[in-house]
Amino acid sequence: MRSPWRATVLGSQMAELLRRPGRFAATGLSLLIAAFVVFGAVMAQQIVTATVVDRFRGTPDAVSLVVTRNDAADIGEAGLDAIRETPGVTEAVGRFDGGAPVGGSAADRYLALAADPGTGPLARVRPVEGAYPSGPRRIAVDTRAAEAYGLVPGSSLTLLLPTPDGESTRRVPVEISGVVRSAATGTGEPTGYASGPDLLRLLGTPGYSRVDVRTETPGAATQAAERIRRAVPGAVVRSGDEVRGEESRAAVADASDTLELAGVFLAVAVGAAVLVATSTFRIVFARRVRQLALLRAVGATSRRLAAALAAEGAVVGLLAGAAGVLAAWGCARLVPPVAGRFGHDLSAPAALPLPQAALTVLGTGLLAVLAVLAPSVAASRVSPLQALRTATSEGSTVNGAGRTVLGVLCAAGAVLLARQQYASLPEPGDTAHDRFAALTLVVVSGGLAFLALIALGPLLVRPVLSALAVPLRRTGAAGRLAVAGVGGAPGRAASVSVVVALGVCLVGSTLTCLASLDAYERYRRTLEAPADFHLYAGEGGTLDRTLVADLAARPELADVTAFRTAEVADDGRSATVTDLDLTTVRSGTGLTARTGALGRLGPAEVVVDAEHAHRLGVEAGDRVTLTSAGRPVRLTVAATLPGAGPHGANFFVTPADLTRLGAGPAPTLITADAAGDGAEGRARAHRAVTETLTGPERGDGRVVAEDAATRAGPDDDLRTMATTVVLLLCLTVLVAVAGVATTASLTVVERRREFGLLRALGLGGAAVHRMVTLECALHGVLGGVLGLALGLPYAWLVVRAAEVSAPFTVPAGQLATVLAALVLVTAAAGTIPALRASRTPPTVAVARGD
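RE: above sequence
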């Protein structure tokens, strides 16, 4: 006898789900991935927090108390001795953080300096090469300083320290005794270390900024703290745990900024999972139309049927959420040991965070309900007469007029906002542009464009497919059938391809924006450091013309160039004009012109930077007047720059024209490059510049030499951000690929009779396999083309709104790689469904449909 529960509408749907668990796998896969990535983000935060807390050594674990002064004054040697003599105190060391310029001038390089005992439980560093310093004028440097300045044990370094009266600078040579590795989280500056007393004598500092104290036992810290307060007037004593907690929270807060950025992209991945799940539920319910019609025929109302289907979706979501949470938890436990094999020391997360796990499971269930809502309502309206017919395919339905109208309205709104933003783009040099408002409009326009793509997707599939599928039709029957299979169900193809397009749009536009900003960053660094070395007179005067010959005679240097600058007035405002030849400026990307062309200037020609070109309203071919000492000089604009000019100059003219503007014959700036490659070549060049400037004829320190390495750092931050963002966006592509696999699996089940008929007509199993694989690949091609068509224009708008001077750079190689990889991955996603389809026997063609 049938149980009453199974006799209900809800019971029948649950029984159907238990009877065919494969449908659960199909509908729950995208939700499982969504739960996995969301809880994976939670576990990533747990790992980051645990790693920071376990490995943070700003204050060593052995420190029981930290002593400072309430008036921010230093603690002298007498105060340090009083702390050491306090009962209960086992050890006390003074800390001091300072620094000094290094090399030929105060504008050259900089070395941070920190006091540390070097050994024992209170040390923050450990030697990796050489020995820790003992004695005056000896320091150890960290690995960053050793690499940046080419230092090894036994080498020497010159510190530029103020004289006791503070009115001048003295040169103090120090010996490098060793190289250390620091466990402290600092600013990332090259740092030198020495014992507290030696460092105080070297720098002439009266005392320490803080004292770290180790007590005999943790329980003795409280009594020792009170005694220290009495022994050192004005002392502020805090526990080591309190200080370490503050430091750890600050470090975790820095990491949380990246995790918050990840949350934005995870939200996009979750939205993609909902789209895939909605499409999957719609296909599954279309497959079960006869069963749903029978329930209607025996008295089930549309409302009860829709509620039962929604409950089914909730069950699927909860089960998928639980599976995703467990999978993310297992992966998080594996990450630390795997990372350790690659040299990255990560801490394992703590116990399973049950509140976050429960919220993730419940949230996945809610997402499933949202995804199943529209398909369940549509499926519940099935006519009871459908019980007498075979199952129909969802893919043959055509979008209603309402959906088309909605898509057209969204597209119109996107175009209007994009056009408004295009019309309000700033000119180069316009510093009053509101970037945040502009980017907000671009994001809103992009969102409307994607909604339009969702609504109009079925109408776009066939025309795009007809253009893309010409080569496939020439590959034989399998190719032609694949094109017909995708084009015959435009609604289904659109629902899958749109999610793929979302991932490709985000990845492609992000890669394009990052490539453009990277090109601009290299351009900007070129402006900041057009050469390896930049020499000028410290008092703002001119340089000895023989200095150019002396520098050019050094084999360690190359491309020694001298040029002049002068102050002029344009339209009543002060500006800088120079005779620097822009064609000789070194650049990773090459200086480019916004209008006109950069080349050898002729008489009475000028190149203008972006700011002054915008303010004067000029471009190539226009005329400008520069005035110096009341002498006006009219010049023709040969080109305008997209941004600032090298060395901060605003106008670039010929030497003859600069002389007309009143410039003297002596150079004001000299640039030079290192003749050798790498750090050793730069180090040799730097020594050559220093020796030339400190020779017997030029030892007055009047000439300042700046090393470009101190002003133009590496692009590690940009590259790290790019890698992180792209990897996060790939989660969306992962969800889309799962949607392709799910749709292919359900399609194979739904089209068994079709495959059987093709087998009966003589199509081999390999051809059927190839046909299904090509259909999946076509979903990747459709999504890739639609995604790039949508993403590249918006990437252009984002680049122009974020930095109008940035050159729009399309990374064609990267985009082609992404598109090719996507096609291969979506084709691979159909491997198992294609294998099932290829094994369909011809007898299925005459079997009764279920």
